[in-house]
Amino acid sequence: MTSPRWAEARKLLCVRLDTIGDVLMSGPAVRALAAGRRVTLLTSPVGALAAELMPEIDETIVYRAPWMKAAPASAGADLELVERLRERRFDGAVIFTVYSQSPLPAALVCRLAGIPLSLAHCRENPYALLSDWVREPEPERVVRHEVRRQLDLVAAIGARVADERLRIAIPAPARERVGRILAEHGLGDARNWILVHPGASASSRRYPATLLAEACRALVREHGVRLVFSGEAADHALVEEIRAGVEEVRAGVEEARAGADEVRAGGASPALSLAGALGLAELAALVAAAPVLVAGNTGPVHLAAATGTPVVDLYALTNPQHTPWQVPSVVLYHDVPCRWCYRSVCPEGHHRCLAGVAPERVVAAALRLLRGGEAERWTEAVALG
Q: What's the total number of domains in the chain?
């Protein structure tokens, strides 16, 4: 670091109280801070799952912050956190937020814990709550990719990293279990399959199941591609709805194109569901093994960026900052006047930014990446539409 005060800081607290994708996208910035230092991440329960895959993080403290979407902590838990942070005697704290969030509650916690240095973007004057204040430029002057936003923040104190890609370390047991599952279903060495992740935490970011089912049927019937579905346990019904349509293709596989011999032989299923069967580390291993991922703008897309897996991103126009970062990708959307609504539920009720994406476009994009064609690289903030 070029900032003298921060250069002497050896024990750092990084605060990222959001979810899996947000924590992953903070990875390059955390890595810039971590060289020669011990880094502790203060994060949400789900954010902690992502932190387990990030080697630049030495320790994780889980906190349900009352100013976040997670279930609020009691006042007693807030006071306990302050004491817990005080005991660790951190030299500095870096608070990562999206531009709609205020860093000041976290900054106050850090001040009460006696942390002398603190850095964050902030819209209003934080006075003594932050030792290093970076004025909030978004969205009035610029809107950056989430990864770039956090890299710019730590650059304010001279922390930079040459490799700005997302990185994770997948535990060997997770890789081994996923490898066994794929081998059992005839996919161990196969490259003619696609991983499909239809779920998302927000309904506004889910591609309609009927359209995805149509795209999946075409991939199996017309191109002989096998499919693997992933998701949480809560996604089981959604996955089965889509998978049922794919399984119907079995009755007409004799009409499939050359290249679908394995499916035509009637052996392995053309559509394997692993929804609810994998932990995050195993999901990361599955994403890493996949030739291509098809998903919405949700956590697995950022796992794909961290593992170098090409991705078709069915991108709901809720916000522009979360496109795949420095990985071969095709981003599909339908432009709408109501774009950048930042809503978890479509305020217009029509979901047109996704419903307007024809299944044929999904098929074409998936095949383009599967066959190694040139892919667009979305490495910075993109003015979609």
A: 2
